[in-house]
Amino acid sequence: VTVVETQQENPLLEGLRVGRTPEPCALVIFGASGDLTKRKLFPALYALAYRRLLPEKFGVVGVARTEQSDEDFVEQMERAVREFARDEFSDEVWARLAEATRYVSTDFSDDEGENRVARCLTRLDEERGTRGNRLYYLAVPPQVFAMVVRELGERRGSEGWVRLIVEKPFGHDLASARELNAQIGEFFREDEVFRIDHYLGKETVQNMLALRFANGIFEPIWNRQFIDHVQITVAESIGIEGRAAFYEHAGAIRDIVQNHLLQLLAITAMEPPIDFSADSVRNEKVKVLRALHTPGPKHIVRGQYGRGFVEGVEVPAYREEEGVAPDSMTETYVAAKLYVDNWRWADTPFYVRVGKRLARRETTIAIQFQRAPHPPFAELAGDGMRPNVLLTHVQPDEGVSLEIGAKVPGQGMSIRTVHMDFLYGGAFRTGLPEAYERLILDAMLGDATLFTRIDEVEEQWSLVDSMVATWQRDRPSFPNYPAGSWGPKAADDLLHRDGRSWRRH
Amino acid sequence: MAAPAATVDDWTGEGVSVSRIERELALLRTASAVGGGTDLRTSVMTHVAWVPAEWREPALETLAGLAERHPSRTIVLLPDRESDADRLDAEVSLRCFPISGQERHVCSEVIVLHLRGRMCESPASIVQPLLITSLPFFLRWRGRPPFGDGAFEELIGLVDRFIVDSVEWPDVPGSYAELGVCFERTAVSDIAWSRGLPWRRVLAERWPGIAEIQELRVAGPRADACLLAGWLRARLDRHVELAHEEAEGLQRVAVDGEELDPPAAGPRDASDLLSEELDRFGRDRIYEAAAGAAQ
């Protein structure tokens, strides 16, 4: 709105491609000594600075428990940018970002610490013209979350805007999510809260929206009449990477299913929004989440990896990982059959699976169409008449491929399945932006389209709660799949019972 | 800087037909697919460059920086009207570049055509069979286009986007009137206009004071200066006097005697500028109005 209003006022702005530059502001990262800041947030800020997408008047304040000076923090972030940024290191770009960077040490429970943050921000307003606009990034453990929110809420000034980026987990069940949302809601309006799910910042996830709604050919067949089923896979080859304390409580269902996977499903199944505004898109997504159900406990499979080989290296079982209980019943794999109860998708199964220590890292959305009703040459088919599959590769090999049957050259009518590929790296020879670049910039601009709204979070928890409700009563025999495989046999059976099978990649 | 091509396969022929060129191109593609078949021909456009002899060196340099960024079919037309022979000579190559993190490559096709003698008379008839069906056709014309000339008009009738750099023209701003005739026939890009974008942003930041501007003083190429002045006149809907001082590159801009701070972003090279134009579709009405008011 600001850009449009400004253009109406200033005729020189039209056509200058200045629409995505945010207003002056300060970004305050709570939990700045964590891995997220080093690996993702500062490299993302550097990428934005590199492309001159940050506002001219900008400041960033790191807040964490670690005692260190501004200079130490800047030095640490420089090392992180050199290691993790996607662009070459430029002294000039870094100098601009470093000059805008401050650090405040506090243990979050200390009132004086919060006062120091407030004083630092006031100084930034004076020195760098950030005009009281604040974007708070809460990358803090759940136990201090409420405290930080309260401190920020009580200190919010009257000048400028305030926005809050909230990292997952958004609670551990529906009740705790509601409590968390209530704590936030005491001080911040819903349009000031940006719940980040970095999957939504990925180009390929957004491309699902482009694929569906910018092409006339897909949407007419994007329904139960033409689609046999959908498979969504979020497979990781890595283990828990030292996150035992978190993972033991969360498991795969809270770590991935509750957020990333259900968001992928919602984007795949949603109705066309009337426009690309935050509320229009999120209204459609929440309708899908509300319509989701699983037909029962038999259609949910849990797994936990045992020892095995990943990329030629022997890796320990989950129960042998540091910090994991030797008799842990935490799931590292979930597969489920879900249904979206609406006119478009009735009786069309969505098979989803997520897992750690699987055969390879891969996130895909596969739309499997119905078979051709009466192929006249079926008996001569080279590898059988396989149904068409539209496959979105979220990561890696970002792109889209369509599997079609083609005639094998020569005598007779032999059909073979071939792939028509669109690869991002092939068609667009510029590097894909990291999800956090897009999301931080969107939050600065106040665009919440790619963030999760309160009702979406609650619907996601509602489904997850219903899935885990029965888990208290049974004790599966863990481990039930070897590391480096595609998961437990029960997951294969889940599809075999329906006469289908998981895609092997 | 463009990454080096992983593989380059080529073929050259003298006195060849267009269908022979198409055949050889297909053979190159087949050869590149043998032994793995993992290379991709990901075309997003056909890019044709008309390059008279005096522009050959800078044009080929610019194109070398583009092949990797825009997977496409590039057709370079090198006219040689004075040649005694009426002949078409061709150099066809397939340039394959690695895709980050993958074993596959993406391949671009480059066809350099020497139009000798009367072959210059109807370049459109040579180009048409070589265009990739249904993809946009961009034409970059080096030097001043011969507006009204039959061969030129034929090509303009085919293109989706016509790209010039009016800095290469000896007679701006007068020739913008002739360019204006093309606006209703195809989308037009002027690299001189793209070069001025950072300065236009600087000027836009002077709003609302700049609404009262009387004189714009520009040290830079004449085309760039005229377009800046034309833009201000068109956007403000009033006359702005231009005082021009010839210089290489847009160096200084002053509003009513007050010199402006130069834009933070430095100048971009020719490949970057052309690359941006190849990403653009549709008419640029702000440019059209600026060119119209530049005269």
**What distance separates the N and C termini of chain B?**
37 Å
Shape of chain A: globular
Q: Treating each run of at least 4 consecutive H or I residues as one helix, how many helices of chain A? A: 14
What oligomeric state best describes the polypeptide chains here?
Answer: heterodimer
Classification by helices and strands of chain B = alpha/beta
Low-confidence stretches of chain B: none
Structural class of chain A: alpha/beta
Query: What separation lies between the terminal Cα atoms of chain A?
Result: 45 Å
* Biggest sheet statistics of chain A: 9 strands, mixed
Helix content of chain A: 25-40%
**Tally of separate helices of chain B:** 10
Give the largest interface: A-B, 22 and 30 residues
Which series of helices and strands of chain B comes N to C?
A: EHEHEEEHEHEHEHHEHEEEHH
User: Could you tell me the radius of gyration of chain B in angstroms?
Assistant: 21 Å
The percent range for strand residues of chain A is: 15-25%
Mean pLDDT of chain B: 86
